[in-house]
Amino acid sequence: MCSIFLLNFILIEKLIVALQPIQLSTLIKIFPKVIKWIFLSKDKKYLYMQKVAYQDAANNSTYNADKKNDFVVGSYDEQNKWEDYDKYLMKYVDKSFQEKIALDFACGPGRNIIKYNKWFKRIDGCDISQNNLNNAKENLTYHKTPLPNLYVTNGDDLGMEQENYYDFIFSSIAMQHICVHKIRYSILTCMYKALKKGGRISIQMAFGTFRENSAGYYENCFNATGTNGSYDTRVEDPNEVKKDLENIGFKDFEYWIRPAGPGDADTNWIFFTASK
Predict the structure, then answer these.
(1) At what angle do helices 4-19 and 24-38 cross, to 10 degrees?
(2) Is the model's pLDDT at 8 over the cut of 70?
């Protein structure tokens, strides 16, 4: 596991490269912000690392053509064709949901918003990266999908404050890339608050025993210097998730263990759902 010193060194190095072409007057203005960052709490530094990583990946991606230049999803077309999403992520979505509103947590470039748009009245999206959301708008426009509400998050929330609003909140290939239990618990709590009574979450994560660059479910790896495959988390026992969800207030927990999808180093995935 990388030390806090290494994490600070890598991020400071990024700052130095970014600051080189900036004029002295501008440096003086932003210097207090740099000092403030140095003294951020460990969870805030982790979230900063995630935001920078996804901003960079999204900045190098384009989605305004059938052949995508994608560095966020990594296997966009293969993910789109993976049938387990229809069977398990959307297991309880029926025709009645065409009058309901959903939220795609960590929506990235809007892949699932486009894919499942006709299954719901509207699918909003939220993501830690504004660049991802900009790409989502580009992608949605290209596919002639109406633009929904798109919220930029702080990494540990949903980027919006509406409560009792959504009928369905779902997320895929996202929560497994957050190797800090404290942050995932905060996100699940925000999901609970945002759901209407009787609303449902449906989430996919990695499942299995130890693998390199993967933390246990309850670990808080604040010192991780990478994400989105370079340092992740996993569920080893479904009861780990069940306990969190029940502590928050969810009920009717169900899960399914399935082979891992495209481009994933894990052996298995877990799809789980619960209602408010």
Answers:
(1) 170
(2) no
CA 188/CA 178 separation, integer angstroms: 12
- Identify the band that residue 75 occupies on the pLDDT scale cut at 50, 70 and 90: confident
Q: How far is CA 200 from the centre of its chain?
A: 18
For the chain, domains (ranges, CATH) are 57-275 (3.40.50.150)
At a CB cut-off of 8 Å and minimum separation 6, what does 208 contact? Answer: 234, 236, 266, 267, 268
Q: Where are the alpha helices (DSSP H) in the chain?
A: 4-19, 24-38, 42-59, 76-81, 84, 111-115, 130-142, 181-194, 238-248
**3-state DSSP assignment of residue 88:** helix
Record the pTM.
0.86
- Cα separation, 16 vs 10, in Å, equals 10
Within 8 A by CB and 6+ apart from 105, the residues are 126, 158, 169, 170, 171, 174, 175, 187, 191
Task: List 166's β-bridge partners, or say none.
Answer: 195
Nearest Cα to Cα of residue 272 among 198, 200, 167:
200
pLDDT 10s digits, 191-210:
999 999 999 999 999 999 87
For residue 25, the model assigns a pLDDT of 59
pLDDT in tens, 132-177: 999 999 999 999 999 999 999 999 999 999 999 999 999 999 999 9
Residues contacting residue 276 through CB under 8 Å, at least 6 positions apart: 192, 195, 196, 197, 198, 199, 200, 249, 250, 251
